TrEMBL record:
Keywords: CBS domain, Cell membrane, Hydrolase, Membrane, Metal-binding, Metalloprotease, Protease, Repeat, Transmembrane, Transmembrane helix, Zinc. One of its GO terms (molecular function) is metal ion binding. This is Zinc metalloprotease. It comes from Methylocystis rosea. Zn(2+) binds at H58, H62, D160. The active site is at E59. The keyword Transmembrane helix applies.
Length: 370
């Protein structure tokens, strides 16, 4: 995620902080300082940091459980609304999704239990008295962990309870329909939060927007996965595209840009292996920074995402949903075509109209090299 700073890693998963989280800490510290001076500011910031440490542990509960099923999570990002674990894929079996979803809230309950054993009886109402310095920080932290577990178990996307609901429903009605039900509940919950936010709590409005968008995104992701099921990358790729050779000049790249309506241009080397991408903005930047006869290679975005044409396009979904173009290659690594979010959307439309539609093989068509 852009505007994120890496603060460490654990077992191959990087932990990042989004700059908006740092702004949140600054705002909380400033507000507390105005009310009670430096000590109040310090205590408020420490409490928020402690909560987000618990959030990170919550996310690692999901991540380490998912790893048992071969699912890797390269990064966790801390946002003002909580933590987001970037899993490379979701489990196919309902039981696996159920255990992964429950692992996060279970971590919060374990933290709360340990704090209660250490402190003795804890009043859950202490958890909402964040700015009250008379309440012990650990007591508030125990209560907040109970709240986090309960909130996350609400049976609505994007909360963990929504995934628990989907996993349970998937056993009887299938993943697609189960996802739509959980997403609709999530969007209904978002409207409820937004309505409550109108009565003096703007933070609820912010959370409501996030919940609504995340629920809709989950439903769309599942629809994409269903449309992609059983479809090979070579049969779904775009082949009537302009491709730029790495040895081309800036002028040649500009000529290609003017001749097409493409947004992304694959760049290949002399062996037709994909070496990167050029966007329209990259080409304009090259025109601004270099002479027309200069090579275009320095402006190529390196390390392109690729998928073997024989693979199912399920493997490319995480990259496609983030808006990234994916190059399709043959068994020798030569460029065959391109997968984009638009091409996947077109597949979804066709599948929606004709679920039994069979796509014709396209690996015999080669993209145009300019």
């Amino acid at each position: 995620m852009r505007w994120s700073l890496t603060i460490g890693s654990f077992k191959g998963t990087a932990v990042r902080i989004h700059v908006t989280f740092l702004l949140l800490l600054g705002w909380i510290g400033f507000a507390a300082y105005q009310r009670g001076g430096a000590v109040a500011a310090r205590d408020s910031i420490l409490f928020i940091v402690a909560i987000f440490v618990c959030v990170v542990l919550h996310e690692f509960g999901h991540i380490l459980t998912a790893r048992r099923y071969g699912i890797v999570s390269p990064v966790i990002t801390l946002l003002p609304i909580g933590g987001v674990a970037d899993m490379e894929r979701m489990p196919d079996k309902p039981r696996q999704e159920l255990l992964i979803a429950l692992a996060g809230p279970a971590v919060n309950l374990v933290i709360a239990a340990l704090l209660i054993l250490f402190l003795g009886a804890v009043d859950v109402s202490d958890g909402i008295q964040i700015s009250d310095p008379s309440v012990n920080l650990l007591k508030r932290l125990a209560a907040v962990n109970i709240f986090l577990a309960a909130f996350n178990l609400i049976p609505a996307f994007p909360m963990d309870g929504g995934r628990v609901l989907r996993a349970a429903l998937s056993i009887w009605i299938g993943k697609g329909r189960a996802t739509r039900i959980a997403a609709q509940i999530g969007q209904g919950f978002a409207f409820l939060l937004g309505f409550l936010g109108l009565f003096g709590n703007p933070l609820l409005l912010f959370i409501a927007i996030f919940v609504y968008i995340a629920a809709a995104g989950e439903a769309q992701m599942t629809s994409m996965s269903e449309a992609a099921r059983g479809l090979k990358a070579a049969d779904a790729m775009e082949t009537r595209i302009a491709v730029i050779e790495r040895s081309s000049s800036v002028r040649e790249a500009v000529d290609i840009l003017l001749a097409t309506s493409q947004d992304e241009f694959p760049v290949v080397d002399a062996s037709r292996r994909l070496s990167g991408f050029l966007s329209r903005a990259n080409i304009i930047e090259a025109l601004r920074a270099a002479e027309p006869g200069a090579p275009i290679a320095p402006f190529v975005r390196q390390e392109p995402a690729t998928i073997d044409g024989r693979e199912n396009i399920d493997a490319a979904l995480p990259m496609l949903t983030s808006g990234e173009a994916v190059g399709v290659t043959d068994e020798e690594g030569r460029f065959l075509g391109l997968l984009t979010r638009q091409s996947l959307a077109e597949i979804m439309m066709i599948k929606d109209v004709r679920p039994d539609w069979r796509f014709s093989p396209r690996d015999d068509r080669r993209p145009t090299v300019a």
